[in-house]
Amino acid sequence: MNRLNSYLTAATIAVACFASAAGAQTTGDLFSTPKVRRALDYLKATEPDTIKDQIKACEIPAPTFQEQKRAEYFKQRFTELGLKNVRIDGIGNVIGERPGAGAGPTLVLAAHLDTVFPEGTDVKVKRNGSILAGPGIGDDCRGLAVILAVARALNEVKIETQGTILFVANVGEEGLGDLRGARHLFNDELKGRITHFISVDGTGLGVTNAGVGVVRYRVTFRGPGGHSFGAFGLPSPIHAMGRAIEKISRFHVPAQPRTTFNVGRVEGGTSVNSIAHTAWLEMDMRSESVTELAKLEAEFKRAVQEALDEENARGAGSKKLTVEMKMVSQRPAGVTPADSPIVKAALAADAALGITTRLSAGSTDSNIPISLGVPAITISGGGAGRNAHSLDESFDTTDSHVGTQRALLIVLGIVGAR
Hints:
This protein is of the alpha+beta class.
């Protein structure tokens, strides 16, 4: 039995769940058409084109909050692919619609436009055999290429779906973008329309069904400042910040549920011979558990306050430091259950392609729909990536077509095919 035929068996579980929940066609009908086989063959044969799309997207700079050039390119591509009502919404998301025949779900298939790299970064992609190297080549230029490939395949073999697919290239997934693109989709642009959500993010063949909660703070210490010799003894914002970081470094967090913390950025002072007026740090805290994240956040606030009090106690005179703790990002935690139809659709696709499914937790655009009770997963885009979020990021294209095929199968497992 070949892999696709095995899918016809494995997919019945997912399709049955979908049919009962959303009124789809009967079990077994969905993948009986030769069109699905042709679509899979097409995706394998045209994977070089998908790789070209991946490189092209990656060479258009798109720092978080500066995604407009890449967004304009994807608006053009969506239009070329014949998607309907193609637009850039009020926050910068690119949306194109592929209407279904009706009486089916409305699925968003998304990938994020933004990268973690600042303006001016060299984003030229270099190729050495099967290896592509360039900032953002996997995260998330791969995801962007995959959603284009899915749309191309549906068009090429003329698959009509029962449900509607909304293709989205969204802004603000990374860092202090704080999932603003996904938030806008659910709170404004597509409010009340989306029944299912899949984001394609990163490389490999994982499935993220749990959203890791994230809280981020900027902590700013302020004081009178002065000359390092003439005003010696005044409390120092940089010293207070150092005390806080030292305390943070000694936090103990559980391995399960996975909980993490990191001071990612620091800044302060004006010269080596000046007591600083200000100093600030940015703190990232994450957990799979809402309870553990709340505990960590409380411990962090205590550490900052203790650092302030200790530095003020050390300093001479009446001039004291103050501190401001400002939350700059918050991502909700949650989970799409492993027995939900959307996860079962992914499991069935993996079974068809001989993939061992790895369910995991992460902080992705899916955090938003999961927190709202909308069935959502994030899938990896295939291939093999290394050094994400670094200037040395790379992507191995070996068998990367499997990720593209898998994305198509999961999509059809949700929206159905006529």
